[in-house]
Amino acid sequence: MNQANNDRSMRMPREIVLTRDIAARRALLFRLWTEPEHLMRWWGPQNMTAPSVSVDLRAGGAWRHCILTPEGTEYWSHGRYLEISPPERLVFSFAWENQEGRAEHPMQVTVEFHELGEKKTHLVFRKVELPDDTELKLQTGGWVQALDKYAAYAEAISREG
Fold first, then answer.
1. Which has more confidence, 144 or 6?
2. Reduced to 3 states, what is the DSSP secondary structure of residue 24?
3. Is the pTM above the cut of 0.70?
4. Which run of H or E residues covers position 125?
5. How far apart are CA 113 and CA 19, in angstroms?
6. What digits encode the pLDDT tens for the residues 117-128?
7. Are 108 and 130 a contacting pair, CB within 8 Å?
8. 126 has which bridge partners?
């Protein structure tokens, strides 16, 4: 093994870990991650919308989402559900699609929902196997914004009853 390969294998895998304490029950928060009508309201960074969301919520089931920039550029991603444990945990694969619609570098997302009381939940978001430092930086920023949208949407829905 040459030194470059050895250095690469010794490096820690690129990972995003984000947390939020959200004033909503975890059953609601789980639903907001798994039901298309809710995903369309928060998926993607602040200045983007999610005009297309499909979900086949079962182990091995596929999902596919599109985020749309204000300029009209579409970014498609898809994956498969690996673990569904309502309302505690959701694990799925994630890959951006290239221009031909084929998956780019596969990653894995884990979302955990921990009760903090009657109407408060601690969310832990983890995404692993990011392909490079640029993607790590871009996706961290995007997911921080998406989770901000998610938390605001969840708390608004929770207040409505």
1. 144
2. coil
3. yes
4. strand 120-128
5. 10
6. 889 999 999 999
7. no
8. 17, 110
